[in-house]
Specification:
CATH class: Mainly Alpha
Number of domains: 1
Pfam families: MarR
Keywords: DNA-binding, Transcription, Transcription regulation
Strand order of the largest sheet: 1-3-2
InterPro entries: HTH_MarR-typ (IPR000835), MarR/SlyA-like (IPR039422), WH-like_DNA-bd_sf (IPR036388), WH_DNA-bd_sf (IPR036390)
Number of helices: 7
Oligomer: single chain
Radius of gyration: 19 Å
Helix content: over 70%
Protein name: MarR family transcriptional regulator
Largest sheet: 3 strands, antiparallel
Number of strands: 3
GO molecular function, one term: DNA binding
Shape: globular
Length: 154
């Protein structure tokens, strides 16, 4: 059997995988370039944005919300603390629980840069019109839910 015929049955799945990877790479490149202008990396910005929009978060839960390993959270929060954008706070109910929260300086920073960042993201995905973006959102959610469930079951 030729190499071409052997992989024909996988062609659509492989093309989708490559398309998703390349689209993600280039949209993230736009976002990363914008974030770096403000002296942060994607992870720092993601954690800061989470704390600003969702309020104080237990350190142990931040990783799953910004798609990073929990081991890196301590390092990221340390960096945000050094910049004056975040702080740690021990829970009053359970002293084993430590929260990260945005500072006034961090909130002012996000309020200043987030609108422009959203504009950068909007421009990066403008290759699809609004209706196509909505369709892509639904399809990618469906794909993500399925892939997560299949991964956990295997």
């Amino acid at each position: 059997m030729s190499e071409t015929k052997r992989y024909e049955q996988y062609e659509d799945a492989l093309d989708l995988y490559i398309g998703l990877s390349r689209a993600s790479q280039w949209v993230l490149a736009h976002a990363d370039r914008d974030i770096r202008k403000h002296g942060l990396n994607r992870t720092e910005f993601g954690v800061l944005e989470l704390l600003y929009h969702k309020g104080p978060q237990p350190l142990q839960q931040i990783g799953s919300k910004v798609l990073m390993s929990s081991g890196n959270i301590t390092y990221v929060v340390d960096k945000l603390e050094k910049k004056g954008y975040a702080r740690r706070r021990v829970s009053t109910e359970d002293r084993r629980l430590i929260y990260a929260e945005v500072t006034e300086t961090g909130a002012a920073f996000i309020e200043q840069v987030f609108p422009q960042h959203a504009t950068v993201i909007e421009a990066a995905v403008a290759g699809l019109d609004r209706q196509e973006q909505k369709q892509a959102i639904e399809l990618l959610k469906k794909l993500g839910i399925y892939a997560e469930r299949a991964f956990k079951e295997s």
